[in-house]
Specification:
It is a single chain. With about 90 residues, the chain is mainly α. α1 packs across α2. The protein is flat.
């Protein structure tokens, strides 16, 4: 599951709220050990996702760097190359 969480800092354009939410969802799924919570846990699960997404956005807004912004296409190509090397 955690392979789906991507670095969101220092990209141009900046990470979207959908990307932040997707990362938060993956994190909560990993911690909870489930991709879909039971009826009894839906509210807690959804609340955790929203809280983590909110905190993540604050973190991304506060981080500073002197490095030039990363290019999404180049980083995606690097990921594909690493995957190809792993799978042969």
């Amino acid at each position: 599951m955690c392979r789906n969480i991507r670095t969101l800092h220092n990209f141009e354009p900046a990470a979207t709220s959908d990307e932040v939410h997707a990362a938060a969802l993956q994190y909560v799924r990993k911690i909870a050990g489930t991709t879909k919570p039971s009826q009894a846990n839906v509210e807690a699960f959804d609340f955790a996702v929203e809280e983590i997404a909110h905190t993540t956005q604050h973190l991304l807004d506060a981080l500073v760097t002197n490095a030039p912004p990363k290019n999404r296409e180049i980083e995606a190509e690097k990921r594909r190359a690493r995957f190809a090397a792993r799978t042969g």
